[in-house]
């Protein structure tokens, strides 16, 4: 299954390949099954089998449970939606909205993780209370963490980088209409952003980009800067500090001093 689950391949490609593979297999087998059973297999049962086998293969390929559940549920749900006479235009609209929200899942294998309030408070405690501090959130999502920090540290600057279109549009509008003046958001690929201007870089991404991102941070951040990863470790690089939080997630903040 390693061919399907390559780290440098978009999960969307792998997910579609699995569904196509299962569909092709069931299509070839269905005449023999129907001859054996003596009746035509109903569409719903066929799509239910499609979902079950697609979910099993997705699990064997090492995908997270959300991908597994989605793979298993999508085919039978599509049949039920058609049976309910839902207007055809609803489906492409839903697809477009999902792509706009979860753009980074398809492009960089990075889900939309949101930092909780307990973690934001811990980040506030880690920030030096001096003027001129520049804090960056790589993959700022809906921007709630940065708005919290910017309100509590008015003498510091906060910058969020995001490439998912809908979350960025929301945070940009929030910033323009009533957001703190020391807060800005950029529609910027983190790989094209020079990190040298930041004193603290925070990210809550996924295991996939961490090794590459850490090398980028080592090469670009100033001496004394902090690199903070929410939950995701960096292979072969032990953090200088680990902050354990008593939240529901049992969050770990992994801190490296450059």
Please, what is the average pLDDT? 85
CATH superfamily of the largest domain: Vaccinia Virus protein VP39
Work out the oligomeric state of the chains in this entry: single chain
Widest sheet, order of strands:
3-2-1-4-5-7-6
Pattern of helices and strands: HHHHHHEHEHEEHEEE
CATH architecture of the largest domain: 3-Layer(aba) Sandwich
Using the coordinates above, name the CATH class of the largest domain.
Alpha Beta
Total separate domains: 2
Indicate the proportion of strand residues.
Answer: 5-15%
Q: How many whole angstroms does the radius of gyration measure?
A: 22 Å
Give the low-pLDDT segments: 2-8
* Global geometry: elongated
Distance between the termini: 38 Å
Q: How many strands, what sense, and barrel or not for the largest sheet?
A: 7 strands, mixed
Strands, count = 7
CATH fold type of the largest domain? Rossmann fold
> Would you tell me the structural class of the helices and strands?
alpha/beta
Please report the number of helical segments. 9
Helix amount, in percent?
Answer: 40-55%
Topology of helices and strands:
Layout: H1 11-37, H2 43-60, H3 65-83, H4 90-101, H5 103-108, H6 117-126, E1 134-138, H7 144-152, E2 157-162, H8 165-176, E3 183-187, E4 200-203, H9 210-220, E5 226-230, E6 241-244, E7 252-257
Parallel strand pairs: 1-2, 1-4, 2-3, 4-5
Antiparallel strand pairs: 5-7, 6-7
Summarize the structure.
By secondary structure, the protein is an alpha/beta fold.
Descriptive notes:
This protein is of the alpha/beta class and 258 residues long. The protein folds into 2 domains: 11-86, no CATH class; 117-257, 3-Layer(aba) Sandwich (Rossmann fold). Helix content is 48%, strand content 14%. It has a 7-stranded mixed β-sheet with strand order 3-2-1-4-5-7-6, covered by helices on one side. α1 packs across α2 (43-60). The longest helix has 27 residues, at 11-37. It is elongated and about 80 Å long. The chain starts with 10 loop residues before the first helix and ends with a strand. The relative contact order is 0.10. Residues 2-8 have low confidence and may be disordered.
